[in-house]
Amino acid sequence: MTAVAEHPEIDEIRELAARVAAEVFGPSAGERDVARTPVSVAERRRLGELGFLGIALPERFGGAGAPLPQALAVIEEFAKVSRPAAFQIFEANTGPAQVINHLGTEEQRARWLPPIIRGDSTMAVAISEPDAGSAATDMRTRAERVDGGYVVSGVKRWISNGGEADRYLLYCRMSDAPGAKGIGAVVVEKGMPGLSFGRPERLMGFRGIPSADVILDGVRVPEENVVVPAGGFGRLFGVFAIERLGNSTMSLAIGQAALDRTREYVCRREQFGKPLAEFQSVQLALADMLLQVEAARLLVERAAAGAGTGLPDPLQTSLAKCAANEMAKRVTDLAMQLHGGNGYTEEYGIERLHRDAHGWAIAGGTPAMQRIRIASELLGRRFDQRR
Ligand SMILES: Cc1cc2nc3c(=O)[nH]c(=O)nc-3n(C[C@H](O)[C@H](O)[C@H](O)COP(=O)(O)OP(=O)(O)OC[C@H]3O[C@@H](n4cnc5c(N)ncnc54)[C@H](O)[C@@H]3O)c2cc1C
Question: What is the per-residue pLDDT across 218-257, written as a single tens digit (0 to 9) for each?
Fold first, then answer.
């Protein structure tokens, strides 16, 4: 079920995505989670061949140049089945590649987008640091100007695909200006001397999506890898709204999958001589789940439709992310409850949905930080969290 009538091209690509996700990634989804197996290069290239990695990226680089809702429909179908597979599509269509697309030079686009669209290489985003999470502008990673480029030192934390990705869009201090004003972004590449990774994190969810510190010790970055100079933090976060809609879609998929599986389960499972669905309290819980999923879907779809091939509105994006993240946590919790003991096993995949729901709600800015943004847009004022 979807909240609004869709365009035929979205229906078509959604159907193809659902089929590929179920056939290729469905059978191994549980095992991948248990063993924390990342998506292989061959699997990623297959996603590239099918066109899933360049849906919302320009045609001249091998993408489809389609509006954001098409990419989100594909992310959703994959995420219902396998978040690690969906992550590849999320990262390429809504992650740092979009920053290159919107803010990079034509030479940078030509250099980095085609291999991402083909699935030959990946780019992760590195913003957070040990002492700069919600307060991203407290970051300390520094890029010192030298002849022909910059020398970068610092530590980035919680980097999804850390250690696995070939390139990192790294937010860092590029001038002495305080706070957001000194922040810009460069691309660092695996193999550059001085770049290393921490041990793989063992997260509650997100299993099959590697996470590690990215450590920079005097990494020399050439001038041509500077994407946004100091002073561009606002522009970077303008594009980050696309990633937040990708994130919201992951949550939406998680909630929808939990609802779909629960609907099927309560019709099949019998207690007291009749299916669980016959009990009124179960019906009310199901109704609550649908209500929450559909409300989040409307907000995500509205923000995505407004973005088209451009940038989403920040207020609509924060409303969508906050609603979808919190919905996924609540709906998967209800799903676990309605699955009884079976919901608490790995076999049914419900606890996996619940664990992943928590991860997506922290990544990309917590619901509390979205609420601060929402209030700020509503009141037309900025609220300095340091005062
Ligand atoms: C699964 C996962 C994937 C991630 N992937 C990436 C990635 O690829 N790249 C990257 O750069 N980062 C990534 N992150 C990091 C993520 O962006 C940060 O974890 C997030 O921004 C929160 O920062 P923190 O963990 O330091 O929590 P903190 O900022 O310490 O926050 C802790 C709690 O305090 C609350 N809080 C903080 N400040 C305020 C305030 N002013 N008002 C009210 N409440 C407040 C928060 O909402 C939260 O509940 C990822 C994180 C996770 C868990």
Answer: 999 999 999 999 999 999 999 999 999 999 999 999 999 9
**Rounded Cα–Cα distance for residues 382 and 64 (Å):** 38
Query: 378: Cβ below 6 Å to ligand 1?
Result: no
Query: What is each CA distance from 367 to 114, 312, 361, in whole angstroms?
Result: 34, 18, 7
Instruction: Tell me which of 87, 91, 141, 158 to substitute to probe ligand 1's pocket, judged by most ligand atoms within 8 Å of the beta carbon.
Output: 158
Distance from C-alpha of 316 to C-alpha of 207, rounded to nearest angstrom? 29
| 127 Cβ inside 6 Å of ligand 1 | yes
Going 179 to 181 to 187 to 193, the CA torsion angle's sign is negative
- Ligand 1: centre distance to CA 105 (Å): 30
Q: What tokens appear for 181 in the block?
A: 């004003």
- CA dist 76 and 81 (Å) reads 9
Could you give the domains of the chain?
Answer: 8-121 (1.10.540.10), 124-230 (2.40.110.10), 234-379 (1.20.140.10)
Q: How far is the CA of 121 from the centre of ligand 1 (A)?
A: 27
> Per-residue pLDDT tens for 180-228?
999 999 999 999 999 999 999 999 999 999 999 999 999 999 999 999 9
* AA identity, residue 43: E
Rounded Cα–Cα distance for residues 69 and 190 (Å): 32
Nearest CA to 288 among 320, 330, 339, 251? 330
